[in-house]
Every structure is written in C-alpha cells, then in structure tokens.
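This part of the workshop introduces the protein records we will be handling. Getting from the letters to the tokens is the skill we practise here. An example says more than a description, so a record of this kind follows:
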Amino acid sequence: LQTHRSSRQTRSGEGLMKANFTHAIFAAIITFIVSFPLLGLQLVTGGTSMSVEGAEDTTFTYIFAAVAIVFLFQLFRDKITGALSFIPKPNVGHIYSELPRNKKQQLEKWFTVAIVALALLWPFVVSRGSIDLATLVLIYVMLGLGLNIVVGLAGLLDLGYVAFYAVGAYSYALLSQYFGFSFWLALPIAGLMAALFGFLLGFPVLRLRGDYLAIVTLGFGEIIRIFLLNTTSLTGGPNGIGGIDKPTLFGMEFGRRVKEEGNTLFHEVMGIPYDSTYKVIFLYLLALILVVATVFVIRRLVRMPVGRAWEALREDEIACRSLGMNRTIIKLSAFTIGAAFAGFAGCFFAARQGFISPESFTFIESAIILAIVVLGGMGSQIGVILAAIAMTVLPELAREFQEYRMLMFGLMMVFMMVWRPHGLVPMSRAHIELKEGAKA
C-alpha cells in the first residue's frame, strides 16, 4: 500500500511538473513576443526616411534574461510561492484597527498635525524644483481623493475621471480669457461645472456596473477630450489656451510687474526684493490649503449618512435596495461630489501652468489617478496620499529609466496586487466581534 501511494504521488508530481513546463514555455514565448518589438527594435529617422534598427547588445541581454526569469519562475512557481508564503507581510491596518477608539483619535490627530506642520515647513527648507514637485504631488492627491469617493467608497469603476479635471481647467481658462474672472471667483464655478458634468454622467450609467460602467466612463472622457480638440474657435483646439492669469493674494501679484490694473506687487508691499521663488511658494501653499480642505470635507462626508450609503452600495447593491435606499441618489451624489474635487484641481492646474491643451487630459491621466486609489487602498485617505507621493516622486528620482516608465509602472502594479492586494494602507472598517463562549 505504501509503495502504491509513493508511485501515485510520483506520477502526480511528474504530471504537475509537465504542466508547469508547458505553461513556462508558453509564458516565455509570450514574454519574448511582447518585449522584443518594444525594446529590441528602434525607429531611426534620417531626413524624410525612417528605418528599423536593432537595439544595443545590452538590451538584448536584458530581454533574454527576462525570458529566462519568467520561464524559471513559471516552472518552479509552486516551490517559490510556497517559500514566499513564510515571509511575514506587514499588516499596518490590522494593528491600527486593534487600537482603542480614543487611541485612534489621538493618533490621527497628532499624525495630521505632524503632516501639516511638515508640509508648511517644506517650501522654506528645500529647493525650487522640490517645491514644484511637491505642488504636483498635491494636485494628484486632490485628484486621488476625489476619485476615491467614486471608486473606493461607492465602488463605481470610473475610467474617465480626467474629463472632470479638464472641465475644471477649461472653465477657469475660458472665464479668465473671455470674461476676466479672477482665480478666486472662478474656483467655485469650476467645481460647480465639473459637478454638473458628473451629475449628467450619472444618469446614463445608473443601471450599469463593473466593466460596462468602466467602458461608458472611458468613452465619456474621450468625448470631452475630442470635443475640446475640435472646438478650435472656443478652446483653441490643439493649440490650447495660454496666458491664463495666476492667483493673487488680496490683490497682490507675485510677478515683477503688475499685469492687471488695480493690483499691487507682493514684494513692494512687503518691502523685500523681488524673487520668483515667492510665486512658487505661494502656489504650493495654496495647493496645500485645497488639499487640507478636501481631506476635511471628505472625512466629514464619510461619517455622515451619505458616506455610509456609499459603502453600503459598494458592498452589496441588492442589500442596499432591500434596505430602502435610493440607488439613484447615492450614485449621483458620488459622481457629483467626486467630480467637484476634480474641478477644483483642474482650476488650480490651469492657474499654475498658465497654459492648457487637450493633450494634458488623456486617458493615461485617468489610469494614473485610478492606480493611486488602488495602490493606496480603496477608501483609505492616508493610503491615497502615500500612493500619490510614490507615483509622482519615484519617476522623478529615476529619470534615467524614463523610457521604461510604463513598464516599471506595470511591474509595480503586479507586485502590489500580489504583495498587498488591499493597498498600502487598507481602509479600517468598524466591526463587532463576539468573544468565544459569549451568550447570544
């Protein structure tokens, strides 16, 4: 009997190894087919002609190394995954959820104060380039927090979120160009316009879920971009809109000369010499104020009945209906409020850049914002902030790998889905546990 069992296990192991070998060969071939045209071939232009040439020998070495790694991993994946299962995974969310409620509130309070204090000191101790990068991070934080309402809290997959970003940016650009609106007057209008578009988008997708919802929202984002591209007489088409006014501080401009009648210069009022860094610091602090306001408003919304309704819709739509909740209002509120924050971010983006065009609002922007929400943790504000910092800062630190940015982006997504499928900092949810032996 023991001999029979051993022979059966041997045959089973041989069959498993044969299946793994076939799968490994197939995966290696697919890896070569995908990587060779992208990395092994280069388009070289010479005058009016264009030719295809092979890459350097080092690149081919990398390609064959990648194929070998994929083959070996697929061949011995059972042993590798079994060995990796013994490696402890960090569980920050579990440790945090075990703390008493008063400790959680104290920890959140001190953590928030420390982060805001550090953010306020940041522009005064770093270079101008670092301030610019931090401002870009804050824009993506605002966008990630807005999309987190739709995807993370309400569970509605939106692939066209960049459309609301574009609506906010073009709202300020057009109001500034044709009607002379200032940034502070156009900011709430840009948010309301984006919220209106989110409300209008909500109606056609009320009965859609999952992939169908993603396809419709993706189409909506492309419709907005193509509309901006084709309406040349209004939006400038592919040429975009330039000369957008910068924000002012109580009528004080941060340039060398006054651009608008009735305004004053910041350095003259303060009695200090002119420095272009003042404008960069002001834009950073303005973005920080918008982010803090966004975090505060969303935290209050999550604790209100509308936030509970979003989470109920995300967990089980059928149970949500059985409880008498109005799905129409819940979905429309998620799309509308989430789009409003994208409109605020777009208005600030237009003011900071001074120039916008439809090429600034492509699908890849929606993909990056969605990746920030997924990597950070669905519904987690702290996670979204950390993911936005990682997604924005890491490409700047690895500029020598700029041409492989999307490849590295894809690899990071794969590793995160294997290592931390719930995100960097998963959202902690209230739960009740009955102790063993407790009476019902």
Remarks:
- Residues 369 and 397 are 19 Å apart (CA to CA).
- The mean pLDDT is 79.
- DSSP finds 18 helices and six strands in the chain.
- The beta strands are 41-46, 49-54, 241-242, 252-253, 264-265, 355-356.
